[in-house]
């Protein structure tokens, strides 16, 4: 819709007042959204200042007064938290788990989409597609519950392992520091690979059919079509998704880990956001929690902005 | 030569089908096992004999889970949050998106930047928690509904969709003397219904599956949404059964609990909480795929 759609040229020359009088209802439409933004998105930003004080909630009758009455400590909260071993552990866990997820879970949906795309039986394709993305709609509570059940000591998997004779006692999947990270990756894959596959399939469906027809006339075999048409056509989309995925590396799966982890595996699975939750709200250390949260958003912000810029510069494509 | 290639071709084809069958089975079987357990008797479950078919089938477990008001209460809470949340969210989001979809709208750039800023920056868990406490939203359903009302990504999807509508449509409305509001509600929204249905589903699924917000803000048992109820059930099944706890569950005799194990109770609770999602799955399928196409990155 161009300007002329609602601003006749005559009015465009006149001042804002005339424009406003004619389109005041447009501004009315914006108000509820802006109120929401102010209340629930901008107001909490004031709370970030807690990160720079030694917050004492009893210092004032409301949080703003309490912040003003608390002692200003500069970046002491940040230096304090960086000296903590469990914070440094959480930081390294965040990166480790994220990269494990990217390396294992990023290529699989592309492979699966290519396979489904190349299948002949339409019926089979449809059935597979319908099944594999059901778990995308399950909450993490449900997914975690399902796996707690089949992986419990008397569950399906352990019974099979014991019967096979390879194991003499049940594997404690949720309690074993060596296994737990892989459990996180497997369950994340179980929940989301199907969905990502469908998304990739949609990209594949967008490849121009005429290219294939031309290739067939030129005598290209299936493998050659894959290498010279399909892959080049979706490559930039794949790279874009990969760049964006790397940009969100600070989110190693908060909602998943919060539901699935327990004290025995904190060491290998505590990530920054779960750390913020435990320190900030669990132990009520508001200042420290906010400082870590701010550190987290700042790193995430820089990563997202720069990966978006990289992809715009190199691929000419970006999210915004 | 030709025969050799044909043989290799068939092997590859078979492998492809095999991989996909394995993929589908891996997705399905854990859930099938769960359903089987939920309908099985106590003994076969404890001895680990239940695989993909109920053994000594019984409905006792379901009868116990559905007894009292706990489950239905949680279902009701989730229903209220999901319906009011998703409908409110889609209306608010569309209202926000409409002015921004007009390139000539004055102030457009500033407002757009504000929303991008909001998308990228947030206060974090602790400041949000303090805000809701100050606003008196603790332990109310407002704390579950209000914060999720505008998802900036969804707002951009709607805005892009409005931009793709033919110009002539709005022009015609204006020539007939309709103002912007009437154009939005009587012309633009009705023809955008499929798109709005998709976004409504995005919101509905997010509200339905939200567990963290409830864990933070809800403390009264009867205000727990389904996901929180389920979390408690999964992690405290034994205690809940022992005490007949859960103030809402009616008193139960020791006999009744005798035939139950935490395993079957958990299974039944999970199956019951996924039922609503499975029932609307056909709709999800129809509209989410539209959503993918709409949301695919613009070149």
**Major β-sheet annotation of chain B:** none
User: How many structurally independent domains of chain B?
Assistant: 2
CATH class of the largest domain in chain B equals Mainly Alpha
Q: From the alpha carbons, calculate the radius of gyration of chain A and give it in angstroms.
A: 26 Å
CATH class of the largest domain in chain A: Mainly Alpha
How many H/I helices of chain A?
A: 16
Low-confidence stretches of chain A: none
Mean of the pLDDT scores of chain B? 86
Percent of sequence in beta strands of chain A? under 5%
Q: The CATH topology of the largest domain in chain A, please?
A: MetI-like fold
Quote the CATH topology of the largest domain in chain B.
MetI-like fold
Number of strands of chain B: 0
Oligomer: heterodimer
Question: How much strand of chain B?
Answer: under 5%
**What string, H for helix and E for strand, traces the elements of chain B in order?**
HHHHHHHHHHHHHHH
**Quick one: CATH superfamily of the largest domain in chain A?**
MetI-like
The CA-CA distance between the termini of chain A, in Å, is 19 Å
Shape verdict of chain B: globular
Helix content of chain B: over 70%
Question: What is the structure about, briefly put?
Answer:
By secondary structure, chain A is mainly α.
Characterise this structure:
Chain A contains 16 helices and two strands. Chain A is an all-alpha fold and 320 residues long. Chain A has two domains: 3-72, no CATH class; 84-315, MetI-like fold. In chain A, strands 1-2 form a two-stranded antiparallel ribbon. Chain B folds into two domains: 1-58; 60-299, Orthogonal Bundle (MetI-like fold), CATH 1.10.3720.10. Chain B has 15 helices and no strands. Chain B has helices spanning 2-38, 42-46, 60-66, 70-100, 108-120, 125-134, 142-145, 152-164, 167-175, 180-191, 193-209, 212-217, 226-243, 254-258, 262-295. In chain B, α9 (167-175) packs across α10. The two termini of chain B are 44 Å apart. The model of chain B is unreliable at 245-251 (pLDDT under 50). The chains are: A mainly alpha (320), B mainly alpha (299). At the A-B interface, α2, α6, α7, α8 and α9 of A face α1, α4, α5, α6 and α8 of B.
């Amino acid at each position: 819709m161009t300007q002329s759609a609602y601003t006749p040229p005559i009015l465009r020359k006149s001042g804002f007042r005339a424009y406003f009088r004619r389109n005041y209802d447009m501004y009315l439409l914006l108000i509820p959204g802006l109120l929401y933004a102010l209340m629930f998105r901008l107001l909490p930003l004031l709370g970030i200042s807690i990160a720079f004080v030694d917050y004492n909630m009893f210092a004032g009758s409301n949080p703003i007064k309490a912040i003003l009455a608390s002692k200003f400590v500069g970046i002491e909260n940040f230096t304090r938290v960086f000296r903590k071993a469990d914070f440094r552990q959480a930081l390294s866990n965040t990166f480790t788990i994220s990269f494990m997820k990217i390396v294992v879970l990023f290529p699989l949906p592309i492979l699966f989409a290519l396979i489904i795309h190349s299948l002949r039986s339409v019926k089979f394709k449809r059935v597979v597609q319908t099944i594999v993305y059901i778990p995308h709609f399950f909450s993490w509570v449900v997914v975690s519950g399902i796996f707690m059940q089949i992986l419990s000591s008397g569950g399906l998997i352990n019974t099979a392992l014991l019967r096979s004779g390879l194991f003499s006692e049940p594997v404690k999947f949720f309690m074993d520091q060596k296994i737990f990270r892989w459990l996180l990756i497997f369950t994340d894959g179980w929940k989301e690979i199907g969905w990502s596959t469908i998304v990739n399939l949609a990209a594949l469906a967008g490849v121009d059919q005429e290219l294939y027809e031309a290739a067939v006339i030129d005598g290209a075999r299936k493998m050659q079509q894959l290498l010279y048409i399909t892959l080049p056509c979706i490559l930039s989309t794949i790279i874009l998704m990969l760049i964006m995925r790397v940009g969100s590396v600070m989110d190693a799966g908060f909602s998943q880990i919060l539901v699935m982890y327990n004290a025995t595996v904190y060491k290998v699975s505590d990530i920054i956001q779960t750390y913020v939750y435990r320190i900030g709200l669990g132990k009520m250390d508001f200042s420290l929690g906010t400082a870590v949260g701010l550190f987290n958003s700042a790193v995430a912000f820089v990563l997202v902005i720069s990966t978006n810029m990289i992809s715009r510069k190199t691929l000419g494509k970006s999210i915004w | 030569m030709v025969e050799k290639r044909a043989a290799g071709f068939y092997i590859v084809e078979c492998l492809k089908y095999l991989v996909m069958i394995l993929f589908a089975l891996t997705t399905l079987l854990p859930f099938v096992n769960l359903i089987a357990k939920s309908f099985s008797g106590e003994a076969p479950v404890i001895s680990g004999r239940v695989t993909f078919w109920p053994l000594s089938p019984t409905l006792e477990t379901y009868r116990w889970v559905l007894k009292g008001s706990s489950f239905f209460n949680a279902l009701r809470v989730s229903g209220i949050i999901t319906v009011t949340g998703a409908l409110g969210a889609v209306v608010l989001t569309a209202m926000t998106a409409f002015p921004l979809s007009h390139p000539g709208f004055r102030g457009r750039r500033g407002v757009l930047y504000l929303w991008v800023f909001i998308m990228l920056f947030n206060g974090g868990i602790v400041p949000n928690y303090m805000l809701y406490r100050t606003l008196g939203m603790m332990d109310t359903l407002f704390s579950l509904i209000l914060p999720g009302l505008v998802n900036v990504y969804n707002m951009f999807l709607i805005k892009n969709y409005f931009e793709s509508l033919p110009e002539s449509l709005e022009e015609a409305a204006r020539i007939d003397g309709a103002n912007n509001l009437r154009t939005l509600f009587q012309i633009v929204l009705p023809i955008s219904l499929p798109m709005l249905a998709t976004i409504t589903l995005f919101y509905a699924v997010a509200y339905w599956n939200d567990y963290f917000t409830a864990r933070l803000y809800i403390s009264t048992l009867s205000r727990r949404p389904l996901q929180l109820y389920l979390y408690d059930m999964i992690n405290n099944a034994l205690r809940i059964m022992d005490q007949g706890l859960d103030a809402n569950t009616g008193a139960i005799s020791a006999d009744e609990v005798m035939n139950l194990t935490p395993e079957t109770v958990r299974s039944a609770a999970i199956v019951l909480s996924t039922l609503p999602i499975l029932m609307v799955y056909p709709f999800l399928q129809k509209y989410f795929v539209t959503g993918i196409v709409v949301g695919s990155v613009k070149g």
